[in-house]
Specification:
With about 190 residues, the chain is an alpha/beta fold. The protein has a domain of about 120 residues: 3-Layer(aba) Sandwich (Rossmann fold), CATH 3.40.50. It is built from 7 helices and 5 strands. Strands 2-3-1-4-5 form a 5-stranded parallel sheet, with helices on both faces. Helix 1 packs antiparallel against helix 7 and helix 3 packs across helix 5. The N and C termini lie far apart (about 40 Å).
């Protein structure tokens, strides 16, 4: 009999904080399925149509919090995965010419050309991290099933996560995944993830 505690677990984060590493570790669990940005390209109801018994790790969920709460509410388990905000901002600064950093700086903050101004790009990266973190914290404020995890303490936090979620599986293989660095940022224009 499975000890799974939740039908759904959502790992919320800014990105650039070990989310892919955590998802890969969760991929070794046997009583949950796990995905990293597994429904990122879908829209409407399909975007949040996660199967029962699933752990989803997706920094983009921070833009769907209202819909996530309406659909899964207080029954789901929520993890807030964080990393030192300055380290996250520094990692995003290396990606300032593409992805969410370009969109946030150019289209949300409305500072076209910000990526070409290093000081402004750094300020925008910090602002992005602060904004997403505040959105997640506000969303989680009334949720009863919340676990905080940090990249800096991920191995110990993963053990707490498994207990909290009632997770089972090949925990040795999962622990091994926690030592692998995925999706490292590189400097330069146009580099992908």
């Amino acid at each position: 009999m499975s000890t799974r505690r939740f039908d759904h677990v959502f790992v919320l984060c800014t990105g650039r904080c070990g989310s892919l590493t955590l998802a890969r570790a969760c991929g070794h669990l046997t009583n949950y399925t796990a995905g990293h940005e597994s429904r990122w390209s879908l829209i409407g109801e399909a975007r949040l149509d996660y199967p029962t018994g699933h752990i989803e790790v997706d920094n983009r969920l921070s833009w769907f919090l209202g819909r996530l709460g309406a659909r899964f509410g207080r029954e789901a388990g929520y993890v807030h995965l964080t990393r030192d905000p300055e380290a996250v901002a520094a990692s995003y600064l290396k990606r300032r010419h593409f992805g969410i950093m370009r969109a946030y700086g150019r289209d949300i903050i409305w500072r076209p050309g910000a990526a070409d101004d290093p000081a402004l790009a750094e300020a925008i990266a910090r602002d992005y991290v602060a904004t997403v973190t505040a959105n997640i914290e506000a969303f989680l404020a009334d949720k009863p099933h919340v676990l905080a995890m940090r990249l800096e303490t991920l191995p110990a936090d993963f053990e707490r996560f498994c207990d909290w979620a009632g997770a089972e599986g090949d925990l040795d293989a999962a622990r091994d995944e926690l030592t692998v660095r995925h999706n490292r940022s590189r400097s330069g224009k146009g580099e992908g993830s």
